[in-house]
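User: Good morning. I'm curious how flavin-adenine dinucleotide would be positioned relative to this chain. Could you predict the structure with it bound?
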Amino acid sequence: MSSQYDVVVIGAGVAGILAAILSVKKGKSTLIVDPQTEAGGLLKTYSPNEKLHFDYGTHLLMETGIEELDNILLRDINADWERFDYLNSGHFVNGQLDTDTPVLNSHSLSQELYFQGSYELIEKTGHRAQQYTNCAQQLEQRFGSTFFKTLFQPAIEKLFHTPTSNLIPNAQLLFGLNRVKAFDPVSTRSLKEHPELSDILAFHSHTEGKSGRLSFYPKKGGIGQWIEQLINQYKQLGGKLKLGHKVEAIEVLSGKIESFIIEGQRVACKQVIWTAPLFPLLQMTGKLTTSGNPPEMLDSHLIHLLVDQAPQTSMFYFSNFDPKYDHFRTTLYTNLQGQPEDNKHRVTVEVFGKGNKLEPEYGAHILNELKRCTIFSQSTQLLGVFMQTQRNSFPIYTHSFVKQRDEHFQIAKEAFSNIQFFGKASGNLFFMNDVLLDVYQRIDFA
Ligand SMILES: Cc1cc2nc3c(=O)[nH]c(=O)nc-3n(C[C@H](O)[C@H](O)[C@H](O)COP(=O)(O)OP(=O)(O)OC[C@H]3O[C@@H](n4cnc5c(N)ncnc54)[C@H](O)[C@@H]3O)c2cc1C
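Assistant: Good morning! Here's the predicted structure, ligand included:
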């Protein structure tokens, strides 16, 4: 059996779903293909039973500010969703919890280091180089040697599992680590008037410098409902979806992808939107000149905990940058939704690793870490643990990773005339709204 579509979209993550909606809206017959049985890619809700929901980390929706795009993405966001004009988030570093800002707080350092670091930060003003060869050099230039060595370097090396000198400039942006909290709120406000310091110093509270865009989270359940809404919208417009189906082969004629073999069936197409990793495309079409491996990535472990008491903080989520702790980001659903679920308090904790396996008792270890950070009281009891690992899901922006990624992208772009790349496949964007805006702005239908 064979079928034919104007557009085949590879990958049912947010990039693929948006691309497919835009395609059907243009009147193109469209098919999405994904080997996973559920759409959403990295944005899903895991339900161990029908009463419990955990997301793959924090995934709030935020307005893009582009009316036509928001009308698609937020079409079905109704009164069942919480609306936030800022995100109540914080961080933990040097043994201290800061519930006011997600940005590294230099006041967590000893007085001596704090004064030394603040002096260096101001002294560098007007003398910062603008070109850097690596992340270490860039951070040292931006923040001075003391803040770099005592705040940024330990945090970034904990998360990427890699020395900062091996990372490209701006790698720290993946963790939002581009500003520092220093001085006091009033001095910061006036120092931020200096153009150079404006993007180096952070406001002291997340209530200052709001983006003006609303964020959304469902009052009940998880963020996976948004994916269901988008998929319904796509299907209502006539779009087709093959989940749990693998592309087995790709037929190319005169530099054009003519068709895919999907579970023994031939699916012909005029145009391809590729949002999955590039490696399988290059491999299946014989375009890899060397026997290269896929780019090295981190595993993200998700530790979903159920506990008997509410958190001792009102934060929606916080990041732990302290290398003495395993965990990175913790989402506190009770605070996001204003209530527990099934009388239990849910938490998702992200931990990055490289090929390691988690033992069943790891959940208790993570709850102990959260108690040490004062997120939960010492008397909090663990009621359940669910663990998931997404292998190779988080990029490590080393020079060799970026070189390989760019080479693959160049080969793929030059090899086929009827394909466009977005999301994972286009490489240089990470955050969801950046990926969505890129799809909306660049997509082009023949
Ligand atoms: C741990 C972690 C935390 C994150 N936190 C945030 C956050 O807080 N805020 C934020 O804005 N962004 C965050 N992100 C980034 C965000 O998840 C991405 O921007 C977004 O999910 C990218 O969507 P995508 O469609 O490009 O990719 P994905 O969601 O990865 O979707 C790709 C799809 O392609 C499919 N696929 C793979 N191989 C094939 C194949 N051979 N054929 C067909 N299909 C295939 C996959 O199954 C998947 O469904 C986070 C990412 C990670 C890993």
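The chain is about 30% helix and 25% strand. The radius of gyration is 23 Å.
Let me know if you'd like a different ligand tried.
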